[in-house]
Specification:
This protein is α+β, with helices and mostly antiparallel strands. Among the domains are: about 90 residues, no CATH class; about 45 residues, no CATH class; about 150 residues, P-loop containing nucleotide triphosphate hydrolases (Rossmann fold), CATH 3.40.50.300. Helix content is about 45%, strand content about 15%. The chain contains 20 helices and 21 strands. The strands form five sheets. It has a six-stranded antiparallel β-sheet with strand order 10-9-8-7-11-21. Strand 16 and strand 17 form a beta hairpin. The protein binds guanosine-5'-monophosphate (5GP). The site of guanosine-5'-monophosphate has 9 residues, from strand 16 and strand 17.
Amino acid sequence: MIMSHMNGYVQEASGQAKSHGERAVDCPGDDSCLVKSPHCSAHMERMQHYQEELKKRREEDTRGKHDIDPNASLRLRKLSQNPKVGIDNPTFEGKEKAIKDTFHQDPVAELVELLQALKWAHHCLGDAQSQQDVELIMQLLAKEDFKNAYSIYIAVSQQMTRVIPTSPLTAQAEDLCQEVQKILLSSQHKEGLELTALLTNPHLQALMKAHDSVAGQEMAEEDLTQYIGESVKLVRLEKARDTPLGATVRNDMDSVLVSRVVKGGAAEKSGLLSEGDEILEINGISIRGKHVNEVHDLLQQMQGTLTFLLIPSSQIKPAPHRQTVMHVRAYFDYDPTDDPFVPCRELGLSFQKGDILHVISQDDTNWWQAYRDGDEDNQPLAGLVPGKSFQQQRETLKKTITDSSQEHQGRLWYAKKSKRPKKKSMSTLCRNIDYDDILTYEEMSLYHQPANRKRPIGLIGPPNSGHDELRRRLLSIEPEKFAVAVPHTTRNSRIHERNGREYHFVSRPAFETDLAGGKFIESGEYERNLYGTGTDSVRHVINSGRICLLCLHTKSLQVLRSSNLKPFVIFIAPPSQERLRTLLASDGKTPKPEDLKEVIEKAREMEQNFGHFFDATIVNMDPDQAFHELRRLIDKLDTEPQWVPTSWLC
Ligand code: 5GP
């Protein structure tokens, strides 16, 4: 089956493939046994027929030039009847021979000789009319313009007889014309300007276009003849300078196969290249036997029209189905330059933990095709990212190796320290995070908060990063808009305290039951009393139409995400050590350099381990600026939808 994209036509009916299926494959080496592709043999027959026709025509032309039929003209007949002249006349034969001999010599000398012959004929002719006619011809031949035209004609004829093009030299005459025009742009020569005028002539340009169109077909027909016996496909793709082809190739013995077609590239847009197709030629350059790196280098240099000669993949292609885009948040950093497994490094897409990716193809479960959120407009080609299960396998393997080496080290450590009494620290009770879950990607959806149910704002950061101050400032400036959740405690209420205002005062068993039931976002013990923020308290604020402000511990993040409270988490990062020192000094604090270092180190750790849970980050360089940025982010939740885990919306 031959398919061609050229000029937007020719797409053989799929029924043609049947004949390919019936090919006799058990007669190797015997061409007569090969049932040729009907299309190929048709091309061959056409070409043979065309060449025979051409040969015949040329023979006829040549005969016409040299074999003068005296009966063809009345005057020549008269001439032949003249006793001084005759077709049997050896003198005439001698003349004819002289003309033949000089045909490939000097055209001017040839004309002189012709003139002499005419003079002689003029002398021989009896009637005045014939003499007048011959005089007219002699005048014409004597003209300078005629001599020039004749010289050109002879030169062209000689060229034509020397080079008989059986096939077009190029199908890119149009491109060549443009290239020449570019070169001529700076030329001030008379000839250069003249040539530019010629090349920019619309008629000549149309001629070149027509030429290329015909030449493309002729060349394709010719090229195909050497692959008779194969079912080949010819495709033409337009590759712009900055548009990548978007396909990968692999070697299979000495064959080069299309390995992957990436969304957004020229190959995918054309729909003409498929995975598994063998590339025989690109723009007439033979590809078989080349290493994929050579093919890569070759294609990198090419642009414009690319003509691929392919053996289509024998694999049955699944019916094209509409791909749905899946949006995910990545929970790991990925750098393809650092990944020995990525099938094509150039096509790998790097991303960072927390980035939103739009996955547009999961055809290959191991290597998805995706765009990074915000990149899709300026990055036409999708990139390869590890698929979820593939990445999970890799992470599991990594974890197993790390765990086994840590376990080994741990055993040694415990063996040495086993006699030491275990240090009792102030316990922070929190629901256990399931570390067995390997987070790779989480499916996300856009969510626009309703006006009457505002998302809680979780502020998080190391001590002294200023998140608590920011929360207090919001509460004091707009108490009708912001509120905090009333915590629970097991301690007794003080004289001025009212149940449900400062705290919800509950018994220890009641607290512990709720804690076990996962009803606290966070909790802790202080002087033998339990304290904690309950999800119901947060919900109470949400239902009141206000925005609940939470200052979070990292351990709260996972629990909060599993609740259905849809928090928006903002990380308040400290500035540089020097700036932090200045800020704390303005609050009357005098931290030691190691304290400052600790804040920054803690922030780095938090980002490293929990950064993927943060919806936004504010670097607290200046309290006023940070406050304005915080307000801007909070206001944005009213005006723009945000990415949230899809599971929150189910
Ligand atoms: P107080 O009993 O004096 O009100 O608070 C004692 C301690 O409990 C303070 O350090 C306070 O920060 C802490 N605390 C108050 N509410 C909560 C809470 O909801 N969760 C946690 N973990 N600690 C709290």
